[in-house]
Automatic annotation (TrEMBL):
Belongs to the NAPRTase family. This is Nicotinamide phosphoribosyltransferase. Diphosphate binds at R185, H234, R298. Keywords: Glycosyltransferase, Pyridine nucleotide biosynthesis, Transferase. It comes from the Bacteria. The keyword Ligase does not apply. Residues 177-437 form the Nicotinate/nicotinamide phosphoribosyltransferase domain. It catalyses: beta-nicotinamide D-ribonucleotide + diphosphate = 5-phospho-alpha-D-ribose 1-diphosphate + nicotinamide + H(+). It comes from Deinococcus irradiatisoli.
């Protein structure tokens, strides 16, 4: 049996929901301009840190539509059971050279924006193609993912910042490396790893997600978006056998214990208490001290708050501490990283225990995996992309049509109407709703980032981090 011909991975016409292909037949006759917007309607956090649109624009909307793409999309979509706007798509090819006649305005990436504010707006620039802003809702909506990861990462950073400023003399130096990305294996795809991993890195600089470095360099001009350290996993420890556990640890100290270096060793393969009190704290203690490097002990099972508390106290007893200017104890020669069961709640519990016990927050770092990059969805911040205005030419001439929904069964889903903008009024960001397309958006913080197939704003990761 002959296999069907493969479909092109680069055909952006197909990057939509099936029913979108029928919408060109559903707008009022004479509709020639539509305006859509994206917002977070609320959710877990009171504001969102916008990020990732530049990637989507450069990766997808920079592709030129070809006649072959149109034919492929028509054949698939009509067989699939939907009508297809063939003439409209061929107009994109013939009249626009394959460039999408859209204008996209957006807030700067890295900006913290209160919920229920427009983050992005989309308008067609060809009056013959008013259905295009809706066609690309599916693809553009996916900016919810990096924005939500960046938002969660930001609020975790603020928790860590407050604890460091209370307990450490080195808060500014410590903060960028307090939350390390362990999430690459826990996400749904390589693209999620790259985009979600980079979203985290607008707030921090520690990561084991190499795909984030690739995305950072290719789409945000980042030479090196993050750093990592040598670290053991259970297989590299247990391959020595239980009887030679101490030899596995000795090998780490000998190999990576160089002056000024730092390396991490998971230490719960058999008995965490024994590993700390005997192997690390007695057998290898002097070698660790003499090496001039910092050993980071990783407990990896049990209740996170209890295990970190145990580890810090045991290491303090074996390696000693100093007391900083704020009156908190700092471990000598060693640190701790918790990489299991890490989320906002466990981070808060661990930090609370540290402070209650008189230890500086700088003693502990965190590695966060699935909860950082995967345990979010579009409803975490209740993202929505809605049409809000149209220009229509009817029997009485051209008129402006506000568009909104207001379901009686869920007032929280009442959408905005009008041509929307986000403007600065003093220290506040406010949403403005115009009942006309003829506006120059005074005091706007939004910018035209894409128009007629061209990406107009191309910022580096450093610039985005500057806002964050």
């Amino acid at each position: 049996m002959t296999s069907p011909a493969p479909l092109s991975d680069n055909n952006i016409i197909l990057d939509t929901d099936s029913y979108k292909s029928s919408h060109f037949l559903q707008y009022p006759p004479g509709t020639h301009k539509l305006f859509s917007y994206l917002e977070s309607r609320g959710g877990r956090f009171p504001a969102t840190r916008f990020f990732g649109l530049q990637y989507l624009l450069k990766r997808y909307l920079s592709v030129r539509v070809t006649a072959e793409m149109v034919d492929e999309a028509r054949d698939l979509i009509t067989a699939h059971g939907e009508p297809f706007p063939y003439d409209g798509w061929m107009r994109v090819v013939r009249e626009h050279g394959g460039r999408l006649p859209l204008e996209i305005r957006a807030v700067p990436e890295g900006m913290l924006v209160p919920v229920r504010s427009p983050l992005m707006t989309v308008t067609n620039t060809d009056p013959a193609l008013p259905w295009l802003p809706g066609w690309f809702e599916t693809m553009l909506m996916r900016v919810w993912y990096p924005t939500t990861v960046a938002t969660q990462s930001y609020y975790l950073r603020e928790i860590l910042r407050a604890a460091l400023e209370q307990t450490s003399d080195r808060a500014a130096e410590e903060l960028p490396f307090k939350l390390h990305d362990f999430g690459s294996r826990g996400v749904s795809s390589r693209e999620s790893a790259g985009l979600g991993g980079l979203a985290h890195l607008i707030n921090f600089q520690g990561s084991d997600t190499l795909e984030a470095l690739r995305t950072g360099r290719n789409y945000y001009g980042a030479d090196l978006a993050a750093f990592s350290i040598p670290a053991a996993e259970h297989s590299t420890v247990t391959s020595w056998g239980k009887e030679r556990e101490v030899d596995a640890y000795r090998n780490m100290v000998t190999t990576f214990g160089k002056p000024g270096g730092i390396y991490a060793v998971v230490s719960d393969s058999y008995d965490l208490k024994h590993a700390i009190n005997v192997h690390w704290g007695e057998t290898l203690r002097q070698q660790i001290v003499d090496s001039g490097a910092t050993l980071v002990v990783r407990p990896d099972s049990g209740d996170p708050a209890a295990m970190v508390r145990l580890t810090v106290q045991a290491l303090a007893a074996k390696f000693g501490t100093t007391t900083n200017s704020k009156g908190y104890r700092v471990l000598s020669h060693v640190r701790v990283i918790q990489g299991d069961g890490v989320d906002e709640q466990s981070i808060r519990e661990i930090l609370q225990n540290l402070i209650l016990d008189g230890f500086s927050t700088e003693n502990v770092s965190f590695g966060m995996g699935g909860a950082l990059l995967q345990k979010v969805d579009r409803d975490t911040q209740r993202f929505a992309y809605k049409a809000s205005a149209a220009l229509i030419t009817g029997p009485q001439g051209e008129y402006f049509q506000p568009i909104y929904k207001d379901p009686v069964t869920d007032p929280g889903k009442r959408s905005k109407d009008g041509v929307l903008d986000l403007a600065r009024e003093g220290e506040r960001l406010v949403t403005r709703q115009y009942q006309t397309f003829d506006t120059d958006y005074p005091d706007s913080v939004m910018r035209v980032v894409y128009k007629d197939g061209e990406v107009l704003v191309d910022e580096t990761l450093d610039v985005v981090r500057g806002r964050a």
